[in-house]
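Re: the request from the purification team.
They wanted to know what the chain is likely to look like in 3D before they choose a buffer screen. I agreed to run a prediction and write the result into the notebook, where they can find it.
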Amino acid sequence: MKALLDTNIIIHRETPNVRNLSIGTLFKWLDKSKFVKCVHKVTVDELNRNSNLETKNSFNAKIQSYEILKMVAPLKPQVIAVSQEVDVTENDKNDTLLLNEVYSDRVDILISEDKKIHTKAQKLGIEDKVFTIDSFLEMVVSEYPDLIDYKVLAVKQEYFGNIDLADPFFDSLKEDYLGFESWFNKKAEEKAYITYNKGRILSFLYLKTEGTDENYSDINPIFSKKKRLKVGTFKVVSNGVRLGERFLKIIFDNAVLNHVEEIYVTIFDKTEEQQRLIGLMEDWGFVKYGIKGHDRELVYVRDFSEQFDLSNPKKTFPYISTNTNAFLIPIYPKYHTELLPDSFLRTESPDNFEENEPHRNAISKIYISRSIERNIKKGDILIFYRTAPRDKSAYYHSVITTIGIVEEKIDNIQSEAEFILKSRKRSIFTDDYLKEFWNFNPRYRPFLIRFLSVFSFSLGNRLNRKSLLELGIISGEENELRGLKKITKEQFILLLKETKTNESIIVN
């Protein structure tokens, strides 16, 4: 398998001052999964245009460790058409040459952080062969689960005073923020969210709730008076286990807990690592607001007022609406905790975020179904019904645990390979199980529901089958909950009331 690497990835890898720690993780996994690391001729040419002779000689020495593609594949007509539509600069056209190698099957995959490259890949229908660092790591972790030690990837809260400021993880923050070390040391008695891998820090998050009297004179335009959650420091090294999503869940949970009106973060966009984090936040509703200070740090805000975006539920997560369809959806106990780990926790406290596997960290997840009822759409509500263990009575032990929001129904899947590709990254199943599931009944293929896991009902407020029957939410007829079961708006509102669901996230 050949992996073609974009020019910027090579530059970040081989520069003497490595700021993007994700690059090291990427190369480790390229080696583990036995990819041949390839470099295009245009990348070599670009590196040789560097005006610094010492830097140029250093790159030329190191480039020999890669397989250099000296022969450029002739441009395909489809690639030329996309280039004429999208490309503006000479760099854009060079990037198209990289894509052409993938389109021509000269290499298996391309890894790039360039958004325009990914846009062109979609237009060419090869988006499944063009990866960001994050998506590549997610792919290899899914395909080679035996190669990763999940035990060391749990998120936990830790006092600043117990965190090693000398860890290389903080080097980029020290460079970006004058006085970072002094600020960090003054926070010794406060807590941050953090993950470790073999003693080294992978991610870090510090949150602060601010009242309406906070001074925002260094932000332009100046904030209006609101209660806010400040994302004080947020950095995640790519590792393939979706820690960025897990940290966003922590941010949103804290916003709900503290009843804030807005969330904001200040961040530079100097590096690809920072740009990738900005992209993640934009996916979840953060928008560019202004700048902060003389260094012109960017300010991004997330409106946290009560609202629900039916067309893109991520933008208003974790709010749910009672004005869309709601479905009960069954899930076996052996799969339940893997897919919905928050529902296993004894408390909803944001202190409890010690989850270890990619599908556990993700907010966006995949549910695989063979339900006869398939009339489900984006924005609809899912209420997960955990069936009883084999040795327990369904009457008392089958119970609703979790609410989710549908992002997408993926139906009309044409092949086993497509089914596995669309399922693997955010489901809990191995490829072998997915193959078995696909081939169980060739006349009635499964479909996928991509959903956002919003919250878990607290223990003591989860309705079991007995309660659901007494409330008239289910009828008790045979096979009633073998697949999706639509309930009425009135039944859904009653369910929310009886489970004492937090009213602050419900949009009526």
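For the purification team: Residues 321-507 form a domain with the ph1033 like fold fold (CATH 3.10.590.10).
Please add any questions underneath this entry.
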